Structures are given as C-alpha cells and as structure tokens.
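Hey, I'm writing a tutorial for new members on how sequence and structure tokens pair up, and I'd like a real worked example in the thread rather than a made-up one. If someone can provide the structure for the chain below, I'll link this post from the tutorial.
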Amino acid sequence: MIKQILGVVVGYAIFVVSSILLFRISGVKPHSDASWIFMILTFVYGTVFSCISGFVCQLISKTKSLKINYILSFIMAGFATFSLLKSDGSSWTQLLAIFVFAPVSVLGGYILIKNK
C-alpha cells in the first residue's frame, strides 16, 4: 500500500514539476493566451512527461493492474478541473491536462505492464 501511495505521489510530482519548469523557463503564464507553436510544444512536452509520470507510478507501485494509474489520472484531472473552475483567463492548459495528459498517464503504466 505504501508503494502505491508513493508511486502516485512521485508520478504526480513529475507531472507538476515538469509543468512548472516549462512555464518558468519559457516565461509564458499558464493561464494566459499563448501562440499556437507554444501550445503544440506544451502538448508534446506534457504528453511525454505525463507518460513518464504514469510509467514511474507503475514502476514504484509494482502492481500488475492499471488501478494505480487510474488513480493518478483521476488526481491529475481533478486538480485541473478545480483549477479550470477557479481561474480566470485562458483555460487551454487545464483542458490539455484533463483530456490529454491525465489519460496519457494511464498509457505510461500500460507500457510498463506490457513490457514486463
């Protein structure tokens, strides 16, 4: 049980820290309008790190099912939904997190399970 909790925490931390780094380094505010090129870059970057977060979550938890990845995905989408409802401005980052990044974190776990 502790491995599963740790897996979710580390997986979510990978997702959050990578997101913070992207916006800090680029200087773009996450809830502001951005160019299409930056949105596409964010899509690719976020997809990669979401997959990594799901992979690491599964690697740490050492389960043989995707339940732990679904929990990670639910938490990612839940925080993004909360942010969507509370923030003003553009919501493209939250929508990407809900509809792309959260589901891709399950794919990361699936990749590890299939390769074992």
